[in-house]
């Protein structure tokens, strides 16, 4: 908009005042000022799609394919979106879409769409053969632009209204989902017993034979 | 001491009362509806419009809107709202034609080329046909000579092979800048698409047959003097090719198997341009050759029913004498 105004000034200047032209020349309209411009959103997440890994020898285990995908500035609270993002973590894609259909939240629609888009991308560009053979390896939320509004209070005062936007990021990986997505999954009783036994056998009894 | 006692008694009392309080509710299942009482709103709805006025309406930008989907009328009203002039269409379009958009009068390779020997009937027939078609090619070569005086077909074949090898080496190393010297503008997007997200290992081993010019054509674009020449060269070579996908998994070929490759490569040069280069323009894939399917990553596990049944028979045979014995 500012640039536009400057342009119109230029046109005026051409017709009437040569002094104004010299003034216009001193306006900065280039990227010098863009240091203060708005952040243009997340940039790094999609860069992972450009990484090319070195070829593997036939005896190595094949690297699972993955795709990163995102949707920026969804008009939804990032704090509310978090619940939906955490829900689908570690699910297979089909299961995630099925579950999201029953989530009665506004953000679930966007999450579902992003996952479906990512799946299509995987088949189209990243050499994934079956769309069903994918799972949600990463799913998280970022804070987007916050637009500030105003609200009248009593006694000549005012309050700030924040209109939040959020980013949603997803990474689909080829293969079947792991049994325990989170590391701190509870251990089986037999496993616990085994560990305890080992611990007991390892201990050192001081001053003993 | 007394304080501690008091505390103990107090806790006990609390515990007891809480149990007593909860007990009737838990035991008798009364259908209690939750009612939310909001104390910040006035009970009289006449203040409702004034309450809405308290919030200053902000028009939020539509971040995820696809502007291409908007109709012209919508776009006009948007621009009008913001007080912007519609963008002026830029009528001048400077463009420089440095390559043609396709192959003109493309060469049709004979069926079974590279497999049929010239001694057989079919091979001899091919040779005859090849001679017949040569007159137009000779004319085109004469035209090329009028621009490029020292144009010599065997010399050209050597240069063409060099360009061919350089182009593939650039593809393998992913060099987007230097490859422009070896491929035309028509081939560029195609090559870039084939390179995308891949690791290519390519090696040229040797010639099976010497490369030879099979076809040549000239055409003019826009004006009479603006001439482009296309020469088709037959390459019968031995190469090694392995293509890996983005994750380093083998997609096609192998790094240890050498294969004979028969290719018809069209080279193009802008003759009218003093600094024109012979560059790879296209590869001719004949209609009679079926398109190859990409290699699949996963395979269906074959069912081994037949062997199982045989095993069963064997087991049965072993069992039967045992039963008889019993």
TrEMBL record, chain A:
SUPFAM superfamilies: Ribosomal protein L22. GO terms for cellular component: ribosome. It comes from the Eukaryota. InterPro entries: Ribosomal_uL22, Ribosomal_uL22_bac/org-type, Ribosomal_uL22_sf. Transmembrane segments: none annotated. Keywords: Ribonucleoprotein, Ribosomal protein. Gene3D superfamilies: Ribosomal protein L22/L17 (3.90.470.10). PANTHER family: CHLOROPLAST 50S RIBOSOMAL PROTEIN L22-RELATED, LARGE RIBOSOMAL SUBUNIT PROTEIN UL22M. Belongs to the universal ribosomal protein uL22 family. This is Large ribosomal subunit protein uL22m. The lineage of its organism: Eukaryota, Metazoa, Ecdysozoa, Arthropoda, Hexapoda.
TrEMBL record, chain B:
Its main location: mitochondrion. The gene is LOC108561669. Residues 137-285 form the Tim44-like domain. Keywords: Mitochondrion, Ribonucleoprotein, Ribosomal protein, Transit peptide. Pfam families: Tim44 (PF04280). Gene3D superfamilies: 3.10.450.240. GO terms for cellular component: ribosome. This is Large ribosomal subunit protein mL45. It comes from the Eukaryota. It is found in: Mitochondrion. Belongs to the mitochondrion-specific ribosomal protein mL45 family.
């Amino acid at each position: 908009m500012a640039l536009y105004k400057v342009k119109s000034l230029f046109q005026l200047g051409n017709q009437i005042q040569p002094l104004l032209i010299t003034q216009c020349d001193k306006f900065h309209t280039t990227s010098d000022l863009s240091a203060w411009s708005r952040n243009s959103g997340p940039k790094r997440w999609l860069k992972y799609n450009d990484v090319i890994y070195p070829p593997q020898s036939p005896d190595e285990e094949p690297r699972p394919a993955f795709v990163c995908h995102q949707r920026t500035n969804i008009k939804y609270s990032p704090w509310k979106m978090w619940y939906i993002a955490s829900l689908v973590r570690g699910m297979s894609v089909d299961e995630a879409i099925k579950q999201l259909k029953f989530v009665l939240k506004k953000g679930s629609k966007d999450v579902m769409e992003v996952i479906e888009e990512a799946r299509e991308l995987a088949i189209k560009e990243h050499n994934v053969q079956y769309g069903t053979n994918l799972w949600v390896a990463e799913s998280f939320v970022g804070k987007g632009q916050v637009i500030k509004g105003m609200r009248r209070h009593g006694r000549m005062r005012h309050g700030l209204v924040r209109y939040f936007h959020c980013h949603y990021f997803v990474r689909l990986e080829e293969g079947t989902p792991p049994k325990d997505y989170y590391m701190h999954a509870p251990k089986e009783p037999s496993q616990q017993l085994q560990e305890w036994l080992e611990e007991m056998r390892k201990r050192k009894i001081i001053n003993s034979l | 001491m007394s304080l501690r006692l008091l505390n103990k008694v107090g806790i006990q009392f609390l515990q007891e009362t809480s149990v007593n309080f909860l007990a009737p509710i838990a035991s008798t299942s009364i259908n209690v509806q939750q009612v939310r009482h909001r104390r910040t709103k006035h009970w009289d709805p006449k203040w409702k419009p004034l309450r809405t006025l308290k919030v200053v309406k902000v028009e939020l930008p539509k971040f995820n809107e696809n502007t291409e989907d908007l109709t012209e009328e919508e776009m006009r009203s948007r621009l009008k709202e913001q007080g912007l002039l519609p963008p002026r269409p830029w009528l001048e379009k400077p463009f420089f034609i440095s390559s043609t958009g396709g192959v003109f009068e493309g060469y049709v390779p004979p069926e079974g080329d590279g497999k049929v020997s010239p001694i057989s009937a079919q091979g001899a027939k091919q040779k005859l046909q090849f001679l017949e078609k040569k007159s137009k090619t000779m004319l085109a070569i004469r035209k090329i000579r009028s621009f490029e005086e020292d144009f010599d077909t065997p010399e050209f074949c050597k240069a063409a092979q060099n360009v061919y090898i350089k182009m593939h080496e650039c593809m393998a190393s992913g060099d987007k800048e230097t490859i422009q010297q070896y491929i035309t503008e028509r081939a560029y997007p195609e090559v870039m698409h084939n390179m995308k997200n891949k690791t290519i290992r390519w090696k040229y081993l040797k010639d099976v047959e010497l490369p030879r010019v099979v076809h040549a054509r000239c055409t003019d674009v826009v004006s009479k003097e603006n001439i482009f020449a296309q020469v088709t060269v037959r390459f019968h070579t031995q190469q090694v090719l392995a293509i890996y996908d983005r994750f380093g998994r083998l997609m096609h070929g192998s790094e240890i198997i050498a294969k004979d490759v028969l290719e018809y490569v069209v080279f193009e040069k802008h003759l009218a341009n003093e600094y024109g280069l012979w560059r790879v323009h296209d590869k001719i894939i004949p209609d009679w050759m079926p398109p190859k399917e990409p290699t699949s990553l996963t395979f269906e596990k074959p069912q081994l029913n037949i062997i199982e049944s045989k095993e069963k028979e064997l087991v049965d045979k072993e069992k039967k004498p045992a039963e008889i014995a019993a």
